[in-house]
Write the structure tokens for this entry.
Amino acid sequence: MYNFSRKTAEEIQQGALSKIFPLRTPHDTWLFIAPHDDDLIIGCGLLLQAAKDAGINTDSVIVSDGSMGYCTKEQKKNIGKIRKNETCAAFQLLGLKEPVWLDYPDTRLSLYSGRYPAKKKDSCAVMGFSGLQNSLTYFMRKSCPSRIFVPAGTDLHPDHKTVHAETMISLFHSQGQIWPELGEPLAFCPEVYESAVYCDFASSPDIKLETDSRALEKKLSAIKAWASQAQIESLVNNIRKSGAVEYFRTFPFNLYAPDHYRKIF
Ligand SMILES: [Zn+2]
């Protein structure tokens, strides 16, 4: 059972997923974007289960290749591959579709901001171009999501800041006519939400998901799939202590219009 609450200035609405996130199309897709493979389940492991049980199609995009996440000398050479296998196991455990990997170099994502002509043998290239805005715009147009979830940009981790910023500008691009080789522009603007991974939100979240210990234990089992990560046990213990709850913050993706300010002068 999944109980959602949404806090607005006037009230707190409560109910099932369909009340707080009503369908926006006959077959909604929610797109989850994360800098690193484990961010998705840490921040949204309960929400992903709720969405799946509600029949929402979920697409996941992992931006980095995980190549800096080694904890032993032995892992140094092949940690990217190890983490991909662990991620597949975690997603299978939750019954989720395999994520798409963009494979940009871990811990250096800020160096790959924007869009630029791809060099030879660039494994991140799509339609002859590379860069986070190229990849994210392409996948947003391919996924056509009604809602997008991304870790908060206030996180201390520079990769999290970069992916948040590049997601927002890519969402802007994906609605326009620019770069037609990356697909048809989105028919409408998805709602955007932040999840929290390592740091607090910039301001209080407005959505709360509470569920039962069964869903929590499933989330924790999925997180344990990242056995290569030496700190995983303490992370699992911390999440268990907090209980079967996740918070999300609706991100104000507002484009400027002078009308927004007419009344205040
Ligand atoms: Zn991360």
Notes: The domain at 25-253 is CATH 3.40.50.10320 (Rossmann fold). The first strand starts at residue 3 and ends at 7. The chain has a mean pLDDT of 95. The chain has one domain: 25-253.
